[in-house]
Design goal:
Elements lengths: L1 H78 L1
């Protein structure tokens, strides 16, 4: 009879552990979902910022090319 009591206690402990692990699993799933949403948002923000930097880079390159062209024109005009 004592062995049956020990077995019953072990089963109760295992059931308690399974319930605890299921709760932790649900919490981890919710955390995972939340983190995936955040990653998606951050990727979108990064993409927008990358496109913006690309546009700014193209604008700066054009301005520098125009300045170099103007300087070349001034040097050429002074040479005459």
């Amino acid at each position: 009879m004592e062995m049956l009591g020990v077995l019953e206690q072990k089963i109760e402990n295992l059931v308690s552990l399974v319930k605890e692990l299921k709760g932790e699993n649900n919490r981890l799933k919710a955390d995972n979902f939340s983190l995936r949403e955040k990653v998606t948002q951050l990727e979108g923000s990064l993409l927008k910022e990358s496109e913006k930097l690309h546009e700014e880079n193209a604008t700066v390159k054009k301005v520098i090319d125009d300045l170099i062209s103007d300087i070349d024109s001034l040097i050429e005009a002074e040479s005459r």
